[in-house]
TrEMBL record:
Cofactors named for this entry: heme
Metal-binding listed as a keyword: yes
Name this polypeptide is given: Cytochrome P450
Keywords per UniProt: Heme, Iron, Metal-binding, Monooxygenase, Oxidoreductase
Cross-referenced PROSITE patterns: CYTOCHROME_P450
Length: 443
């Protein structure tokens, strides 16, 4: 199940935001093959982005020519170049034939900009924005966002060495001279990410092109006198990294919880049947009419938040937290897991009780429920995540076949309408630690 959910989230992001293609599960062997290559590139990128580079700790090894990570990155970059150049060419060829009512993806937007400013928006520039590391024009450097820094630090360092810092500064300076952004400075990286994601969630940022604005926000960083490592992989890899496993993992936990609590599954199905009926599948516009489904999502995120410690934050000035003096520049972790499981805040915190969120709008309950973090660095993808979660879980719940499940599910003492005896093995099988995919393939 996790594999299928992961491919689904990649499909959503690639199709809506990046390439316009649905790589997985579409019965098109050519696209499947392309998707497989894309996945391999992504997997390798994630592994290398988080890899330690021994030369960072013992620079002498780099001087002696020990460059394992650098060499791997160069090879990976070649693969990514080939993949995305092919994609750019395919999309360039199909330009003019696409549906005019369809929102443009990132690459399509960039190809339009290429027409008006070909010397600036070269193919290499487009590739760099999408995924590769070779054009450092988007690198701004300095006190970076924790996620971005954490994810790319090692590989960035290796690339810094390959590039030479002065060259980068020139590139950044050129950008600064090219323009600034009128967006409020408080928004920072969050705003940039929000703009990117807004392609999908439909927020209108106006102006002359989404991507233009996204880029301006990066320039704004520089004009603001800040430096930040935001290499171009931040644009896409961070989105894919931050958005795919988190959403897929939440779907998997939700399914596990529902199968272990069939009475909740039944109530969610009843809600969907009542609101939508049996003649059509639910769609995005139904989501606000399904509060119990939203409660299930919130309760899943409370019990199993994908970012239990959020991401590391840094105090920008001296402050006091819980009576402790925290000097400026201290790394702070928020133990969201402990807050979500605190018996002082929750009645029976270890129990799955979606009803506890009845009446709550959205996914935030003060500082009690904060699966997407809080403040100006909170997750910019929450709107997208909640929609994908709602649509996916809602569809599965709507289509859940109790008769077939009944062949397996017997002895569900808690479950209305189900007959008894085989519940215990089912519950054991439902536990993701035991392996969900077998169970779900049987269902
Ligand atoms: C169930 C799904 C998701 C959960 C639970 C989640 C949770 C989080 C959390 C806890 C943070 C750190 C916030 C903080 O420290 O205050 C975060 C950051 C982030 N998330 Fe999500 N996220 C999800 C889905 C997504 C999606 C779908 C995207 C994008 C398509 C995304 C993009 C990001 C980005 C770019 C950041 C870094 C923001 C920054 O550093 O300013 N996330 N997310």
């Amino acid at each position: 199940m996790k594999f299928a959910f992961y491919e689904l989230t990649l499909n959503v992001m690639m199709r809506n935001m990046i390439s316009g293609k649905r790589y997985f599960g579409g019965n098109n062997p050519e696209l499947e093959e392309e998707g497989k290559r894309f996945r391999e590139i992504l997997d390798e990128t994630f592994v290398l982005a988080g890899a330690s580079n021994i030369g960072d700790y013992l620079p002498v090894l780099s001087w002696l020519g020990v460059k394992g990570l650098e060499n791997k990155l160069i090879k990976l970059q070649e693969k990514r170049d080939v993949f995305f150049q092919r994609l750019i060419e395919q999309l360039r060829k199909s330009k003019g034939t696409e549906d005019v009512n369809k929102r443009k993806t990132m690459i399509e937007q960039l190809l339009s900009l290429q027409e008006s400013e070909p010397e600036y928006y070269t193919d290499a520039m487009i590739r760099s924005i999408v995924l590769t590391y070779d054009e450092p024009w988007l690198w701004v450097y300095g006190d970076g966002g924790s996620v971005v820094m954490g994810k790319v630090r090692n590989s960035s360092r290796a690339m810094f060495r390959m590039m030479g810092k002065s060259e980068q500064w020139v590139v950044v300076k050129t950008l600064v001279e090219k323009g600034g952004c009128e967006t409020d400075g408080g928004c920072e990286l969050w705003m940039m990410m929000m703009i990117i994601i807004s392609v999908d969630v439909g927020v209108d940022v106006g102006g002359d092109g989404m991507w233009c604005h996204a880029m301006m926000v990066v320039w704004f960083y520089c004009t603001n006198g800040r430096w930040m490592v935001m290499d171009n992989s931040g644009m896409v890899v961070v989105l894919l990294a931050a958005g795919s496993d988190t959403t897929a993992g939440t779907m998997e936990w939700a399914m596990s919880l529902l199968l272990n609590h069939p009475q909740v599954l039944k109530m969610a199905q009843d809600e969907i049947d009542m609101v939508i009926g049996n003649n059509r599948l639910l769609d995005g516009s139904d989501m606000p009419k399904l509060p119990y489904l939203q409660c299930i999502i919130n309760e899943t995120l409370r019990l199993f938040p994908p970012g239990p410690l959020l991401v590391p934050h840094e105090s920008s000035s001296d402050c006091v937290v819980g009576g402790y003096n925290i000097p400026r520049g201290t790394m702070l972790l928020v133990n969201q897991w402990a807050i979500h499981h605190d018996p002082k805040l929750w009645d029976d915190p270890e129990t799955f009780k979606p009803e506890r969120f009845e009446g709550l709008e959205g996914t935030h309950d003060g500082f009690k429920l904060l699966p997407f973090g809080s403040g100006r660095r909170r997750c910019p993808g929450d709107g997208l995540a909640v929609r994908v979660l709602g649509m996916t879980l809602g569809s599965i719940i709507q289509c859940f076949d109790w008769e077939r499940a009944n062949e397996e599910l017997v002895d569900m003492t808690e479950s209305p309408g189900l007959t008894m005896p085989k519940a215990v093995p089912l519950v054991a099988k439902c536990n993701p630690r035991v392996g969900m995919s077998k169970l779900l393939s049987e269902l």
